[in-house]
Structure formats: C-alpha cells, structure tokens
Design a protein that fits this description.
This protein is an alpha/beta fold. It contains eleven helices and 15 strands. The strands form four sheets. The protein has a six-stranded mixed β-sheet with strand order 1-10-7-4-5-6. Helix 6 packs across helix 11 and helix 7 packs antiparallel against helix 9. 40% of the residues are buried.
Length: 386
C-alpha cells in the first residue's frame, strides 16, 4: 500500500504529539475492537494479552479523542457491571475509489468499517486533472447526502487497475488509462483532493474488501480473482493483504502465456459484438447481462484452460483456504465458471492434495472501492505498519 506520510493528515486525527495517529499498542486495541465488536476492558485485556492496567492507560486517550465510545454498563453476575467499549463510527470517515478503464466507483466507510454509501459512474474523461475532479465531485456529493463534513474525512484510498513500477505510487495501467501511467499518483491526487491519498492496485484492494466483508469471514486466507476489463487479483493471508516486494502480488494474468486466451470481460464483450449487435460498452453489457447469449458459452469454453492453469498455480504455490471469483464478474457467470474449473491434482496412494474451495464472491458489484476505503483506516489506526 503506497501512500502519503502522516504529516499531511489533518491535526484533529493526530495524537497530542502531533505526529502519530496511533501508537502500536493503541492500534492493537483498535484492531481488537474492529474484529470483535464491543468489549469490556477485561475482555480487551484477554483478547490482546495485555494487563487491565495497560488497557486502562491505552483506552483513556482514545476515549478523549472521540475514537471510542463507552456504552452503558452491562450487569453480568456479581461485581461491578462492565462498561463495553466500541469504536465510534461517527468520529471520521474515509473515501474509497476504484478507477477502471470505463468507470469510477466510490464508497464511504466509517471508523467501524460500515459502508455508508456506494456509487458508480461512467468515467467521463481519462485526463488526470479532469478525471480527478470528477472523482472529487462524486465523493463530495456522497458526503453531502450523508451529512458528513469534509474535515472529518481521514483521506482517500484509490485503487487503480495496473501494476506498480518503482518504489512509489507509479502504476502501469492498460492503454485506456495512458494519462495515469507512471505518475506519482499519491502526490498529484492529494493536491487535487486536498486530502491524504493511498494508492493500491484494484485486485489487491478488492481482495482486502473481500477479506473483510465477504468470503474472508469464513476463510482468513484466500486468493481473489479479479475480473474486469482486464484480469488480475490479490491475496489475503491470515486476514492481511500480501503485497509482495513491489506491491504486485496477485498479478495472476502473468501466469497465462501471452498467446493464450485472456479470461477477462473485454474478451466477452468482443465475442458478443461478433454478431454486429452486441452491447455498446462493458458497462452496458454488465448492466443488463445476457445470460442466454451464445457468446457466454464460447467465453466459458475459452476461459476454462487458462483459469485451470491459474487456480492450479495458486493452489500449489499459496495453498489458500479459498479462491474467490469476483470483480465485475456477474454472480451467475461466476457460478457457471466454477462448474467447469478443475485443479491439476494427480492421485498418489489413493489421495489427492487438498485444494482450495472455489467460491463466487458474495458481494454484489465491484468490491475494490470498498477495499480502497479501508486503506486510510488501516494505515492510520489499524495496521501495525506505519
């Protein structure tokens, strides 16, 4: 996750030292409340393996900053009733944005991780300054509708299709986003948005969202196949995204030889247009997906071999609990695809190697904007990495 430094975060989000948003131990407490919901001080101490005295010292500043709320005490047996602590969702919010080749999706998330609103619009222009202002207008309209103030916005998480090049937030996207290619996106977008910005590729952002709100609730380690105009993905291990040395872990398209069929939705659109009366755009195809179009069967046939290669490689190298098919892939199409896929897994002594469960994402619509919205929250309050 590539982002800006904390020095650009508004002062109201910082500790009294004016530098940090949260110490390492404060992050542990906040993360425990995010995972487990409301808990008493004693429950928190047991959950994070700290003493009750340490918890008390950590909790008071967080209450004073409005990041935590202390609910009414709950009577449970003898002794003094325990007052549950929980995250104060209203303390702040973040904006998640997914920049695709043809559209932009945005999501608003509060400190508790609740998605307050989602919206997708067509990308009117790809020129970076113009497109960025369209994105800002979208974010501000969602904030107005929700009655949220910009000064309570922690920052933007921006997911961009493509792979990272170099050590900063420079992304190498498909040709349709040439205007975004190889630029320091965090700095440029931060100036336009007047907010801190964290950059991630769309597949990893989607995997983060899936890990928090979808299949990750049952599988803490998963691989996510991201189907959109292109094909990619992300990996979550024990609830945390695996990014790799250059931030490009999960670029599953690179497993497929370049002269093989590429199992993306642009190829499906191309097949539908072969008759001359196909959908006008990828967005139009997905808005009214024609399940009975003969092109769907041809796409499924062609996608089977390259995807079998991908899932077999994932199984052999990563051994996750699940492989999730998602992105902008319609659920019905994902389920048909799963019926056709199989792992390279020869028998030995009457046994096959255990393989991941194949799942269609339970989240309707592209989840990458939701994952992107978690980036500022994770960086500022939950992730143990600064």
């Amino acid at each position: 996750m590539t982002g800006v430094g904390y020095g650009t975060i508004a002062p109201q989000f910082l500790r009294e030292d004016g530098v940090r948003t949260a110490t390492a131990n404060e992050r542990i407490v906040l993360s425990a409340l995010r995972r487990g919901g409301a808990q008493s001080r004693a429950q928190l101490a047991r959950a994070v393996d700290l003493t009750e005295q340490s918890i008390a010292r950590l909790v008071e500043p967080l209450l004073g900053r409005g990041l935590l709320i202390e609910d009414r005490p709950i009577v449970a047996g003898r002794g003094k009733p325990a007052a549950p602590l929980r995250l104060n969702g209203a303390a702040l919010h973040s904006i998640g944005v997914s920049v695709m080749t043809d559209a932009v999706a945005a999501a608003v998330m509060d400190l508790e991780g609740e998605v307050l609103a989602r919206r997708q619009i067509d990308l009117g222009a790809v020129d970076l300054p113009v497109a960025a202002r369209e994105i800002l207008d979208l974010a501000q309209s969602l904030e107005r509708e929700l009655g949220l103030k910009a000064e309570r916005r922690l920052g933007f998480g921006v997911a961009v299709t493509g792979y990272f090049v170099g050590d900063d937030a420079r992304v190498n996207p498909p040709p349709a986003l040439d205007a975004w290619a190889l630029l320091p996106l965090d700095r440029l977008l931060s100036e336009i948005f007047d907010s801190p910005v964290w950059i991630e590729n769309d597949g990893t952002a989607a995997a983060i969202g899936e890990g928090m709100f979808g299949a990750g609730r049952d599988h803490d380690s998963l691989a996510y196949l991201y189907f959109s105009a292109g094909f990619g993905g992300g990996v979550v291990v024990k609830g945390e995204p695996m990014r790799g040395l250059h931030g490009n872990a999960g670029e599953f398209a690179s497993v497929i030889p370049s002269d093989w069929f590429q199992p993306n939705l642009t190829q499906l659109l191309t097949l539908m247009r072969e008759t001359g009366d196909g959908p006008a755009s990828l967005g139009a195809m997905l808005a009214a997906f024609p399940d009975d179009d003969p092109a769907v069967g041809r796409w499924l046939d062609a996608a089977q071999a390259p995807l079998n290669l991908v899932i077999s490689a994932i199984s052999g190298v990563l051994d996750p609990g699940a492989i999730v098919l998602g992105g902008r892939l319609p659920t019905a199409l994902a389920e048909q695809l799963i019926q056709r896929l199989g792992f390279t897994n020869p028998e030995r002594r009457g046994h096959h190697r255990p393989v991941p469960t194949l799942l269609a994402s339970p989240i309707v619509g592209d989840v990458s904007a939701i994952g992107a919205a978690t980036l500022p929250l994770r960086a500022a309050f939950f992730s143990t990495a600064s």
